[in-house]
Predict the 3D structure of the following.
Amino acid sequence: MTPSFETILTSWHDFYLLVGTGAFTLIGLMFVAVTFGAHLIDEKNMPIARAFLDPTIIHFVQVVVIAGIALMPGMETSLFGGLLTGVGLLSLIVLVGVHRGLSTAQRQFNDLGMADWLSGFIVPLTVYLGFTGCGAAFWMGHMPFGVLAVLTLIILLNSIYCAWELILWFAIVRTRQDLRKRQAKKRGRT
């Protein structure tokens, strides 16, 4: 006898509680990081800041939403699949804006590497297509819980990587600004 959708979903409760809580916590830390780094963002570097900020927050929110859907009581297979498909499609639409932001940052600063494109666009595109496919599979009565869990972990880990890259960018910008200030002071003394 095959276990029911509800039985299997219940067995994933702790997983989604853990990843959802982790993503919520990391969203909060992103707000703290941006608050501390806000003075480093000016009109000139806003496109590159947004190119890193937007995808990171979007991916963390994606994990929270999927965890929330998985933890909703009384969930049925078709509703779960429909919501997951909808979230995947909406994320793909949002990813168009992320691509625009990355392209703008690349045109203005020409310093986005392949890792930035992988973490900011290619990995999320793959994962969001996977979320949409999983949603369609659930809607048709299949239960790809393992695939959904792997995709959720990939986007969570990708988000952590993006957040780390953002923090490093803040550090580099700050170091450059401090160096310029010291050089200006030195020139002012001589």
In short: The mean pLDDT is 88.
